[in-house]
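Reading a protein record of the kind used here takes only a little practice. The record below shows the convention in full.

——
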Amino acid sequence: MSTKRPRRGRDFFVGGSITGSVIGDDNSDINITIAPDVESDSASLDELREAIALLRVQFAAEDSRVRYELQTIQDELGEDEPDGGMIRSRWKQVLKLLGPLKDLTTVAQTTTAILALFGGK
């Protein structure tokens, strides 16, 4: 005879970004769906696309590696479902290449937008 109790199921829907973890016991099934707020993320993604395009113009005379990384990010942002990990990775490379220029307002704002849309540090 089994002494296990029946599992209790709970479903959660969460909009926006989440940090942390869910802790449950062995008797619970917890399903969590994390979904972005489509309206605000859509506008933010468009703003990020514009910011990257602007930075490409602003840094046109800079190192060709900066231009390449920005172009790669811009291409990825043109996809239906941009790869956030790739965008964060390429952006980190841009920041390294820019050195002290990474403190410019437009660069800092772009960093904030990338982190807000795709998470990471």
